[in-house]
Amino acid sequence: MSDSPLKRIQDFRQSIWLDNITRSMIMTGELKKMIGEGLMGMTSNPTIFEKAISGSADYDEQMETLIAQGKTPAEILDALMIRDIQMAADLFRPVYDGTEGRDGHVSIEINPSLANRTEETIQTVREIRRAVDRPNVMIKVPSTPEGIPAIETLIGEGISINVTLIFSVGTYESVARAYIAGLRRLRKAGLPPGSVRSVASVFVSRVDTLTDKKLEALLKTESDPSRKSRIGSLVGKVAVANSKLIYQRFKELFGGADFKELAASGAHVQRPLWGSTGTKNPNYSDVLYVEELIGKETVNTIPSQTLAAFADHGKVRNSVEEDLQGARDTLKRLSEVGIDIGEVTDELQKQGVQAFIDSYNQLIDRIAAKRDEMKSKGKGR
C-alpha cells in the first residue's frame, strides 16, 4: 500500500489523522495496521467517546474496577477516556519520534461545559496533561472568546494544544495570534519555543450544512431566474472557499515578521487542521472535503468511513491553493444574496459547543445508569 492516497498526500506536507477512537480498534491491532498504512495521528471529542463507550462492552471491566473504587460518573468517564488516549499515544509514539514531534499526536477534549470559563479551562488542561502523561498528546481547547486567553496561557506553559471549533477567518486569526503570544511567553520563561506543538482545527462540512439550508430557503421564495441561478451556484461551495481563505491567512501570519523571529528560535507553525470533513450531503462526493483541501503544513482529521473512501478512490493534488479568487468571489456573492458568513460561523460555534455538551451529558447519564446496573448485579463492589 506504499502508493496509497494516504502515503501520497504526505508529498504535499499534509498529514492524515483519524477522527475516531474506540478501545476495540486499539486492542485488535486495527489502529496499528492503519498507522503502518500512513495514518499520522488521531483526534477525539465527546461525541466520539459517547458512541464508543455507549456502543460496546469493551469498557465494562475497567468500569467495574472504577465503580469498586467509588468513582463518580464524571471520574469514571475521565479514566476511560484517558486510558484510550494513553494506549493510542503509545501506538503513535514511533510516528511522533520519527517526525521529531510534527505528527504522532492524539487529541483529547476537556469537559465542553467549560468552553466559556477561562480559568477553569486552564486548570482542567493542566490536570489532564498530568493524568495522561504522554508527550504526544494534544489537549483540545475551544476557540470561544473565553478559550482564546486560555490558549495563550497554556502554550506559554509548554502544553501542546489542539484549538477546536474554528469556523471563521476572524476566529482563526485570534487563535493564531494567541499561539504566537504564548510562544513569546514560553521563550520569556527560558523554555525553547520548539518544545510545544499546536494545530488550529477549522470545521468544514458544517459550514456547508448551515449555508446550504439558508440558500435553499432563499431558493424557495425567489422568482427571478437570474437571481435564483446565482443563489443556486453557491450551494455546496462555501465551506471549501471559507477554508481556503483561512489557509491564506495562515500563510500570511506565519510568514510574517511576528513569527519569523520565533521561528529562528526553533518555534513551529501552528498547522491548520481541517475537521468535520466527513461529507454529510449524499449529493456531494464522499471525499469532497479531503480532496479539495490538500496543502502544505496542514492536517486533515477524517472520520473512519471517509478515510476508507479516500484510501479507495481519493485523488491527490495541491488543491487548497487552487482558484483563490473564486473562493473570494464565493463569499462575496454569499453576502450579496443576503447571507452573512460571520453570523453563520458564530451560530455554528455556539451549536458546536452545545452539541459537545449534549454528548458529554448523555454519556455521563449512561455511565451512571450502567454503574447502577452493575451494582444491582453485584459487580463493581
Could you outline the blueprint of secondary structure elements for this entry?
Layout (H helix, E strand, L loop, with lengths): L4 H4 L5 E6 L3 H5 L2 H7 L4 E3 L2 H9 L5 H9 L4 H26 L7 E4 L8 H15 L4 E6 L4 H10 L4 E6 L2 H20 L9 E6 L1 H17 L3 H8 L5 H17 L2 H8 L6 E5 L12 H4 L6 E5 L1 H10 L10 H13 L4 H36 L5
Parallel strand pairs: 1-2, 1-8, 3-4, 4-5, 5-6, 6-7, 7-8
Helix pairs in contact: 4-17, 5-6, 6-17, 7-8, 8-9, 9-12, 10-12, 10-17, 12-16
Model description:
The structure is a single chain. This protein is an alpha/beta fold and 381 residues long. The protein has one domain (5-203, 250-309, 343-374): Aldolase class I (TIM Barrel), CATH 3.20.20. 57% of the residues lie in helices and 11% in strands. It is built from 17 helices and eight strands. The protein has helices at residues 5-8, 23-27, 30-36, 46-54, 60-68, 73-98, 118-132, 147-156, 169-188, 205-221, 225-232, 238-254, 257-264, 288-291, 304-313, 324-336, 341-376, and strands at 14-19, 41-43, 106-109, 137-142, 161-166, 198-203, 271-275, 298-302. An eight-stranded parallel sheet has the order 2-1-8-7-6-5-4-3. The chain is globular and about 70 Å long. The termini are far apart. The relative contact order is 0.15.
